[in-house]
Batch of 3 targets.
Target 1
Amino acid sequence: MLQLFFNTFKLFTWDLATNLGYWPIWWYGPGLVDFFHFFTNNIKSAWHRQALDILLKNWFKPMYAQTDWQGRILSFFFRTLIIAWRFMFFIFWAFVLSLAMILWIMVIPIALFMLIRLLLFT
C-alpha cells in the first residue's frame, strides 16, 4: 500500500512539474498561434456580420430601385450613415480583440513581475 502511495505521488509530482514547465512554451507557441487564428477569424466574422463588404459594394446604388435624383441622394446619405455606424462597431470590436491579444502576450510577464514583487518586497 505504501509503495502504491509513493508511486502515485511520484507520478503526480512529475506530471505537475512537466506541465508547469511546458505551460509557458505552449502559451507563446501553439497557444499564441491558436489565439491568432481565433483573432483573425473573429475579425473576418465581424466584417461579414456587419455586412460591410455588401454595403461598400452597393454604396452608390439607389435603394429600393429609386432611380430619380432624390432617391439617389437619400440612398447615398443613409448608406453613408449606416456604413459609418457599422464601421464604428467593427473598429470597436477589433480594438477589443487587439486588447485581448496584447493581454494574452503580457499575462506571463505581468504574473512573474507580480510574483517576484510579492516574494521580495513583502
Target 2
Amino acid sequence: MDYLIWGGVFISLLGLVGLIWCIVKVAVAKKSGLSDEDLRAVVQKVVPLNLGSLMLSTLGLMLVILGIFFR
C-alpha cells in the first residue's frame, strides 16, 4: 500500500502548492492598491481554485491515512 501513501503525498503537495499560489495572488493584488471592486474581482477568480486546492489536499491526506491503515 505504499503507492497509496506516496500518491496521497503527491496529491496533498499539489493542493498545498495551489493554496500557496492563491495566497500569493491575493496578497499581490492587495498590495498593488487596486480599487475595492477590482480587488473583489481578483478574489472571486481565486476562490474556486482555493476550494479545489483545499479539496485536493484533503483527498491526498485521506489517501495517506488509508495507505497507513491498510499497511
Target 3
Amino acid sequence: MKCLYCQGLMEQDTSPVHIDRQGYHLTFDTVPALVCSQCGEAYFDEQEVSKIQAVIDAIEVSSVPLRQRQLPVAA
C-alpha cells in the first residue's frame, strides 16, 4: 500500500494518538497502524479506531458530573 499524501511505502508499525476534547487530553503512545516510511502519516485499522472511541465514550460518560460541578474560584 502507498501513502495517500506522498506515495511512500506503508509499513506495519505503531503510532501515537493524541486527543484533545472537551477539557481532557488523552495520549496513546503505541497504537498499531500502517505508517508511511517516508512522511510518517499513520492509518489505523477500524478495530483500533473502535477501541479508541470506546475509551473516549467511557470517559465522556464518567466525566459528566465533573463538567456540571461548579468549583469555587480564588479571588
